[in-house]
Write a structure and sequence with these properties.
Strand order of the largest sheet: 3-2-1-6-5-4
Strand content: 5-15%
Structural class: alpha+beta
Oligomer: single chain
Length: about 725
């Protein structure tokens, strides 16, 4: 070969080698650079991130403390707690008043999602009251389910409490103790409150295994709680908590909590946090060294092979490499390019195939849901050519075999489309025509081959719109098989096997069911429904007829509710029965009906219990008060005190009888009724000022505050939303 061709080969091979090495190594260097940059950026902003975390913790902690302070304020000012605030000894108060106190505590718990449990106690008087029980502190471990021993309770609560205490109550809860009032002259009995709060409420999701949270009391200059359970008081005495700084292996950030003179301190362990980064960078560097050595060897070999192919291609195309000067034209490694183009074409083809399969599965899923927008043209556009308008559905199970391949084998030229159902693997089969002989022999062949452990087969139906019917038939067969232990069954054999074509729901059972519902007896109602269904199932009623039976029972429940007095229908929650007839899971539908029965019967029983003494004098007073509120809610001067004066009774007596028969405080009901009337007027298009005047709120400011606190939006936003929906 001439000198020119040798120079051309040398320059070309050098250029190929350099390009291959760059293509191999540049991504590795970029990854390494990105890793180092990420490590540096994380190191630079770790203090900032920790400050943000501390702010999150402080915000969550402030929300919880704010709610506790609201509870304390209500205990201080609410007349319902007047006897408790002055209580020195449990023997000085009647059991009835203690019972009302537990009800008031339960009300305070239910007004907040923040508080899991609440109780009042007095270390001075040696007593406690929860939402259900009361007793001595010395017996609290026996009476109240705290995860503390009696000795621990004595150590914690027997001494006077004039500061905040935070204790680990269980794996997911903390116990916060504090006096109802920090002023001793206003709280001579040292009445204190204990609140169980979920850790998820106190410490948000930004806290992970790299962080620890410490609550620090600025009054006593000491930490009072640690999320990890580890408190090093010497460490905090050496740290300036007014600054964010690095201390040893920790980044320390503090956020002020002015409500209780507390600080929320977040400590982040840098060593543990960056450990994975260090390991990753070391691994990347090792891989780079190995890649450089391996890439060099591989590149030299590839270049040698490419040059051989290049020479052969040049010879085949008539190019004389001897005539190419060293400064001549450049040739791309076209042989490798052809290989790359082929690989790209195959990858694109696979991607298109996957997308097409996904769209096809979506189309068949719509058919199963009863969607009639999918047509033969739709399927044809997706590459599916139907061989006939006949379809049936199969639900099959196999422990070892590929069910799809097996069905494709025994189906011959038929189209088999698989999909996942709630009951297992299911298939839509497009038959060539009304092949009764094949249809009848399919079960026999599947049972004989022994490849499948079970097979449920629907009838043969015509039209795409009938696929859903076929699917529901296959589900009915599958449910019947499970109940009767039959591995191979078709819908046609199911119809001939069942001994009854209709269900039995006698008039007597209907009347007993209505009676149990009206009495609010949920257990008897559910037991009766189960007996009716089990009897029909044992009598051979088909799954489809069982669905119609459950639908009939649901109708009886609705008719019974509609026949009740208005005082029941106002209290019974809105009910929505599941789509029983078209359901793909009968047991799920039955469970839904049982849940509705529980809800209805619970409401009816509660009303029956509360109105059992309607002939009594106190109930008559309650009804008159209720009517008075409905007639005079627009009077701004109407309140609990004016109502008590109008009926010549005490406020305490009025509050007690109203809460007994209505379940909530009278002041809450007045506000709720006024709000309901206000929303009705707003939905009619009335102006906000007119609503305030007609509903007795007194001032626009009061109305805006109350409306937003209850509804979460302003009256104007509520009015706009209602108008837009209409």
């Amino acid at each position: 070969m001439a000198k020119g061709s040798h120079s051309f080969k040398k320059s070309t091979v050098r250029r190929w080698t350099l390009s291959y090495l760059l293509a191999t190594l540049i991504p590795l260097f970029l990854v390494a650079a990105a890793s180092l940059a990420t490590l540096y950026k994380n190191s630079s902003f770790i203090t900032y991130s920790n400050n943000i975390t501390a702010s999150f913790v402080q915000s969550s902690f402030r929300d919880v403390l704010s709610r506790i302070n609201e509870i304390k304020a209500e205990i201080i000012v609410d007349t319902d707690f007047e006897d408790i605030r002055n209580l020195e000894n449990l023997d000085d108060i009647s059991s009835l008043d203690l019972f009302y106190a537990t009800s008031d505590i339960r009300r305070l718990e239910q007004t907040s999602t923040t508080v899991n449990s609440l109780f009042l106690f007095s270390p001075t008087g040696d007593w406690f009251i929860t939402n259900q029980i009361w007793g001595r502190l010395s017996h609290m471990a026996e009476d109240f389910s705290l995860s503390f021993s009696q000795k621990e309770i004595d150590d914690i609560m027997s001494e006077e409490i004039w500061d905040v205490k935070i204790l680990e109550a269980s794996e997911g809860q903390v116990l916060i103790l504090m006096p109802v009032s920090f002023i001793k002259s206003l709280n001579p009995n040292n009445l204190s409150v204990g609140v169980l709060v979920s850790k998820n409420q106190l410490f948000p999701s930004v806290i992970d295994e790299f962080h620890d949270v410490v609550i620090y009391n600025e009054k006593s200059n000491s930490p009072i709680y640690s999320l990890s359970g580890k408190i090093d008081e010497a460490f905090f005495r050496e740290v300036d908590l007014d600054k964010e700084k690095d201390v040893g292996k920790f980044v320390v950030s503090a956020a002020e909590e002015p409500i209780m003179s507390l600080k929320c301190i977040v400590l982040m362990d840098k060593g543990t946090y960056f450990h994975d980064y260090y390991m990753t960078i070391q691994l990347i560097l090792l891989i780079m060294l190995m890649a450089i050595a391996f890439g060099l060897v591989l590149t030299l070999r590839i270049v040698k092979n490419d040059w051989s192919r290049f020479e052969a291609a040049a010879a085949a195309s008539g190019v004389d490499l001897e005539m190419i000067p060293s400064e001549g034209g450049e040739y791309a490694p076209f042989v490798s390019s052809v290989s790359d183009l082929k690989a790209q074409k195959e990858e694109l083809s696979d991607m298109v195939s996957r997308q097409k399969k996904t769209i096809l599965e979506s189309a068949f899923r719509k058919l199963l849901d009863g969607d009639t927008t999918v047509t033969e043209e739709t399927l044809s556009a997706l590459g599916v050519d139907l061989i006939s308008p006949y379809f049936y559905v199969v639900i099959a199970e196999s422990e070892e075999s590929d069910v799809s391949s097996y069905l494709q084998t025994i189906s011959g030229k038929k189209n088999v489309f698989s999909f996942r159902s709630d009951l297992g693997e299911a298939f839509i089969i497009n038959a060539s025509d009304e092949e009764d002989s094949f249809y009848d022999s399919l079960l026999e062949r599947a049972e004989k081959d022994g490849w499948l452990s079970s097979l449920s087969l629907s009838l043969l139906h015509k039209g795409l719109e009938s696929i859903r019917d076929s699917y529901l038939e296959a589900i009915s067969v599958h449910e019947y098989q499970k109940d009767h232990g039959i591995p191979f069954l078709s819908y046609s054999k199911l119809l001939s096997t069942t001994r009854q074509n209709t269900y039995q729901f006698t008039l007597e059972e209907n009347m007993v069911l209505q009676k149990a519902i009206k009495e609010g007896n949920g257990e008897e109602t559910k037991a009766l429904i189960n007996r009716i269904i089990d009897r029909n199932r044992k009598n051979g009623v088909s799954p489809k007829m069982l669905r119609y039976l459950l639908f009939n029972i649901s109708g009886t429940i609705i008719r019974t509710i509609n026949s009740l007095d208005v005082r029941y229908t106002e209290a019974i929650p809105e009910i929505s029965f599941p789509p029983i007839i078209q359901s793909q899971n009968f047991q799920k539908s039955l469970s839904g009906v049982m849940e509705i029965v529980d809800s209805i019967c619970y409401s009816i029983k509660a009303i029956n219990d509360s109105t059992a003494d309607q002939s009594s004098e106190t109930y008559q007073v309650y009804r008159k008060v209720l009517d008075y509120i409905h007639e005079n809610y627009g009077d701004t001067m109407m309140n609990v005190s004016s109502i008590a004066d109008n009926f010549h009774i005490s406020i305490a007596y009025l509050s007690r009888i109203f809460k007994k028969y209505h379940g909530i405080n009278i002041s809450e009901y007045i506000t709720s009724y006024r709000l309901d009337c206000a929303k009705s007027l707003l939905s009619e298009g009335k102006m906000v000022g007119e609503v305030v005047e007609k509903c007795g709120f007194g001032s626009l400011r009061t109305f805006l505050r109350v409306f937003k606190s209850v509804e979460g939006i302003t009256p104007g936003q509520y009015k706009s939303t209602v108008v837009k929906e209409r």
